[in-house]
Amino acid sequence: MSAETLTIVISAIGIVLTLGASLFAGFAWMVRHIDERIDAVDKKLSARIDSVEEKLSARIDALADEVTGVKIAIARLEGPPRHLVTASS
Question: What is the DSSP letter of 79?
């Protein structure tokens, strides 16, 4: 092999290694950046879901109390159960 050919082969290997390392570093940065953004969105979404869950739980508890009050009011309107009177023969 001549010196010129050896120089070209070494240069080509260097270029391939440089481009490969650059692509690897770029993809690694992109994946890390996307992971950070997803984590931030996940935290925001978790906080919103927790707040909605608390509000819904409070509304359900209030509704249960109201239903209990309505049941009591209906029972008072109906009065005590009527007893059947049987005729004696």
Answer: -
In angstroms, rounded to a whole number, what is the distance separating the alpha carbons of residues 49 and 58? Answer: 14
Q: How many angstroms separate the CA atoms of 43 and 50, rounded? A: 11
What pLDDT, on the 0 to 100 scale, is given for residue 82? 66
pLDDT in tens, 13-63: 999 999 999 999 999 999 999 999 999 999 999 999 999 999 999 999 999
Residues with Cβ within 8 Å of residue 78, at least 6 apart in sequence: none
Cα end-to-end span (Å), the chain: 131
- Alpha-carbon span 53 to 70, nearest angstrom: 25
